[in-house]
Design goal:
Largest sheet: 2 strands, antiparallel
Mean pLDDT: 74
Shape: globular
Structural class: mainly alpha
Radius of gyration: 25 Å
Distance between the termini: 47 Å
Length: about 500
């Protein structure tokens, strides 16, 4: 296999740049929407994270994601939603057009003297319409054309590019044989399901797909309202997509949030940070226009402002971005803690290409060295530090809530969105598994598999790609800062 290809859609050219300048020309400065200072619940400042990510992590993690081992992710995109029936239609709001039964399709119409329509069909409803009513009917059908086109576009943009070379497919068989010979002591049904397939992440970049409306709202609403912790006395919706309910917005919302215990605050911040990261990816890789029949992608400042500007978000935009940094710190900490697992000679990032595998592991260990050098890590020991019984119960509740969120990803109606949602939740889940397994990692034997702690290929790929997404989000945020400064 080739060592890597450039992401589809990278370097979009003049059309995207012109569109961006037009957008910037009428937008006021929203520099105030950016975040600075020290993060809550840790002793790390945002400028330090920006510099560390820009000059140390981002260039290396980007190269790692292009390596064959991390480029291919095995995922089951056909698992049914376990919580509600998903109709599989386009999920854009008001987009669905009810198909007409084949037996009712008109084959011809003619007018009579009574200003009624005589339909040469068995559609009695149409046959009884007047000319005016019939014109109104067909006008409504015509008006649905744009919505139908939006549906088709969303379906096209959200589709998975399943292109894989025969050489890659043959290699996957060898990879599976190698993985099966390892002593993992766990089995992921999703990974071993006949419906699971390898997906080339470089051919399926995370970006705007048109997925929105009631289906997307229901997914995020379920994540926030049914799985995040909040006092029963608080009625203000956690879901930032939900309509406002009066004065319980902005700072007042965070007043009660700060009253929760650390673990419950952390849980909310992780979900909010993941949401912010995904939104940044969509803003940075937005469908700007069609150029010579091909889509053009680039940063959309108007969309960025809508999601993160303090005025338009009633003060919550900067908080969401702070939660992105907090999530980055959590996964950064996990990488530094899991380094000993990969530093052992027994661990091989196997693809069958000896030199490529050695280079990939060297690059990964180099990234781990950088993560360990970061001086302001989040202290996970402050979590679940109360009485043992209460801490154990809270930890299990924390785990089950997050596991439930990972299942909700099977309810996402867009395949490409589902792919990246599943990967990033599994990556975060793997990071949490690492943080809660410190003792097991410390006891790892050098030259034999560990029965106490093990990572599958799927978990490893998800962990590094999920962190790569966060690193990219922070880098994209820096780009937006520059664009905002130039727009002043």
């Amino acid at each position: 296999m080739s060592p890597g290809v450039r992401r589809a859609g990278a370097g979009q050219g003049a059309a995207a740049a012109v569109q961006l300048l037009v957008t910037l020309s009428f937008l006021p400065s929203v520099v105030e929407a950016q975040v600075t200072g020290v993060l809550d619940d840790c002793l790390c400042d945002i400028d330090s994270i920006d510099n560390f990510n820009t000059f140390k992590i981002f260039p290396k993690i980007k190269k790692l994601q292009e390596r064959d081992y991390f480029r291919y992710y095995k995922v089951n995109l056909k698992r049914p939603c376990p919580f509600w029936a998903e109709d599989g239609h386009c999920s854009i709001k008001d987009c669905h057009v009810e198909p007409c039964p084949e037996s009712k399709i008109p084959v011809g119409i003619k007018a009579g003297n009574s200003n009624k329509v005589f339909a040469i069909t068995n559609n009695d409803a149409l046959a009884s319409l007047s000319f005016v009513e019939l014109c109104t009917y067909y006008s409504k059908v015509a008006n649905n054309t744009k919505e139908l086109e939006d549906c088709e576009q969303a379906s096209k943009l959200g589709a998975i590019n399943s292109t894989l070379s025969n050489q890659s497919k043959e290699a996957f068989i060898d990879w599976a044989r190698y993985d099966d010979s390892q002593d993992h002591f766990c089995e992921l049904d999703d990974e071993r399901s006949p419906a699971a397939q390898y997906v080339d992440l470089l051919l399926n970049p995370e970006r705007y797909t048109g997925y929105k409306g009631s289906s997307a709202w229901r997914v995020w609403n379920s994540i926030y309202e049914e799985n995040c912790f909040k006092p029963r006395s608080v009625y203000r919706p956690l879901n930032p997509l939900a309509p406002s309910r009066g004065e319980d917005d902005g700072e007042s919302f965070y007043t009660w949030l700060e009253g929760l215990c650390l673990e419950k605050r952390v849980f909310y911040k992780l979900i909010s940070g993941l949401h912010a990261s995904i939104n940044l990816h969509l803003c940075a890789n937005y469908l700007l226009e069609e150029t010579w029949g091909k889509p053009s992608w680039g940063p959309n400042m108007k969309e960025f402002k809508r999601r993160f500007d303090p005025v338009e978000t009633k003060g919550e935009g900067p908080r969401r971005l702070k939660n992105l940094y907090f999530l980055y710190l959590i996964e950064l900490r996990a990488l530094s803690k899991v380094a000993p697992y990969f530093e052992r000679s027994i661990v091989d990032l196997y693809t069958g290409n000896v030199q490529e595998d050695a280079d990939t592991k060297t690059l990964l260990l180099n990234i781990f060295q950088d993560t360990k050098s970061f001086p302001m890590h989040f202290d996970e020991k402050s979590m679940f530090a109360g009485d043992k019984k209460g801490a154990k119960s809270l930890k299990e509740e924390f785990r089950l809530h997050f596991k439930n969120i990972s299942r909700i990803m099977d309810c996402v109606g867009c395949d490409k969105c589902r792919l990246w949602g599943k990967l990033q939740t599994q990556g975060l889940g793997t990071a949490l598994k690492i943080l809660f397994s410190e003792k097991e990692i410390q006891k790892l034997p050098e030259n034999s598999p560990s029965k106490g702690f093990q990572l599958t290929r799927q978990e490893i790929v998800a962990l590094l790609n999920a962190f790569g997404r966060l690193s990219t989000s922070i880098r994209e945020l820096q780009n937006f800062k520059v664009l905002l400064q130039h727009s002043r």
